[in-house]
Amino acid sequence: MPARQATRKPAGTRLTITPPADFDLARDVCSYGYFILAPNHWSVADQTLTRVLHLSDGPATCVIAQPKDKLSIRFDRALSPAERNEAKKQTSRMLRLNEGESHSKAFHTVDKRWRNPGRARLFRSPTLFEDVIKTVTSCNVAWPSTVNMNTQLCRHIGVGGAFPTAQKMARTRLGTLRGRCRVGYRDQRMIDLAKLFAKGQIDEPWLKSPKTPDDDLFKFLVSLPGIGPYAAGNIMQLLGRYSRLAIDTETVRHGKAVLGMTGTDRQITKKLEAHYEPFGDFKFKSYWFELWDFYESKRGPAHLWDREGVGKTFTAAQLQ
DNA sequence: GGTAGACCTGGACGC
DNA sequence: GCGTCCAGGTCTACC
Fold first, then answer.
1. Other C-beta atoms within 10 Å of A190: how many?
2. For the whole model, what pTM was predicted?
């Protein structure tokens, strides 16, 4: 009988990243609703973010922790040198590590309310495509449906539990998106968007360039299928442009309930634009942290939210 | 340029 | 358990 060989699983890769000095994983991940959406999973017990990243050799699950001042990213498999670079880029985008301390200070100079809690970063996705599709899943729908759509997209279209790539979604049948992923009439729009990304017809360097004027960016975004004024404003903040609000019913509700505004929705929209005007290039951040502060005043700190409970019912409509 | 109605889904509600 | 109503942003047709 041959000697039994020890079967040791190859060690997964572990990356270490030095974030900006004011970065706080729990606060900065749990700062925007996308941290609740699949494939993201925030562990309240461990205070870590787990998700599948789509890398060139296939999906890889990573666990991001911040034991001290460094970020530790542990993968479930070994990554090639090229994949390590991809993983670092995607993680940096997701956590907005490109927004350093100077960016935070500039924001806090304009809006001092968030200096002490240190709020300055908004969580986003590893890729622009995921951010755009997530934005579409948040339009004209209650939050629990947005949660479900993203869960089903990862389950039925994403490889290995990852968020679907543009290439994969572009090849997906309408019936799969509608029947299995429950995206409803958004099916055709999502496939059209995926095709634009897959064919390279979305000029990402132009979208990301600081030289591109905000107005040009907005005009381009609203020309995309499924993207209207709200979605375009939201995608702008996801691109790092905070000079516009993304006004939806939640914004109007905030204007009424928290800021004490009165009038028709249209009048309140104008009042909101005027209210946030003093925050200039940081309008969206000032608005968003006000809204987030309201949620946390009702439900406690976001990094302690129960995923199945609060995470699915955290809109202001259900908090009033 | 402004407005009305359709588009889907899922939750709330009444029976 | 079933049927009805409603919320939610975008798109299209129409004025």
1. 26
2. 0.95
